[in-house]
Amino acid sequence: MRFLLVEDNAQLAKAVADRFALDGHAIDCATDLETARACIDTASYDLILLDIMLPDGDGRDFLKTHRGAAKRTPVIVLTARSEISDRVGLLDLGADDYITKPFDFSELEARCRAVLRRQGGTAQNTKTFAGVILDSMTGTLDTGSRVEALRNRELRLLEVFFASPGQIFAKSHLMDRLFSYSDDVSENAIEVYVGRLRKKLEGSSAKIETVRGLGYRIAESP
């Protein structure tokens, strides 16, 4: 998945980005609101992590505008304010959740997972397609005959396919979901990950098809 982190503290931003990168997520970092707006105008994000006090304005104004434009991307606010009135105000503005600084990274990760599950309309960490079970919590793929361990980006790529079975995804779209602006990779990386996943799906009813000239989709074998 691809996240946008809006945070002007360089040390904190790097720590958060490094932590999520270990889980296979792509994360773009913006140090001010102007950069954040440019990011959301040019890329699609699964989640926004938003600081409040930024060099060029208040993150609450960004949040208000974001929701006013009917954008549904979930937002978790990173705030140093602990008063109940401040937290209630953030939720009323449209924040999906908040976490108070300083925070533990495991709690931040858990809150991100919870918000993304709610966004997807499910409280489960597993998704099933064609009898194959994808467990995002354990990072495993159960084909019915065996359980395969997934590398981080393999897991993120399967999450995209399992969320929309039958939908065709262009390589460029998958690149956008898996990699950030700072990642120096080519579209050939998608071919590599698809090849690995096809091997792990062997023997199951689920397969990743190549749709010539368009991209890839997950489908059920007849």
Nutshell version of this structure?
The protein contains 8 helices and 13 strands. By secondary structure, it is α/β, with parallel strands linked by helices.
Describe what you observe in this structure:
The protein is an alpha/beta fold and 222 residues long. It folds into 2 domains: 2-119, Response regulator (Rossmann fold); 126-220, Arc Repressor Mutant, subunit A, CATH 1.10.10. Helices cover 41% and strands 24% of the residues. The chain has helices at residues 10-22, 33-42, 59-68, 84-93, 105-119, 152-163, 171-178, 188-201; strands at 2-6, 26-30, 47-51, 53-54, 57-58, 75-79, 97-100, 126-129, 132-135, 140-142, 147-149, 206-211, 215-220. The strands form 4 sheets. Strands 2-1-3-6-7 form a 5-stranded parallel beta sheet, with helices on both faces. The protein has a 4-stranded antiparallel beta sheet with strand order 8-9-10-11, with helices on one face. The protein has a two-stranded antiparallel sheet with strand order 4-5. A hairpin with a 4-residue loop joins strand 9 and strand 10 (140-142). The mean pLDDT is 91.
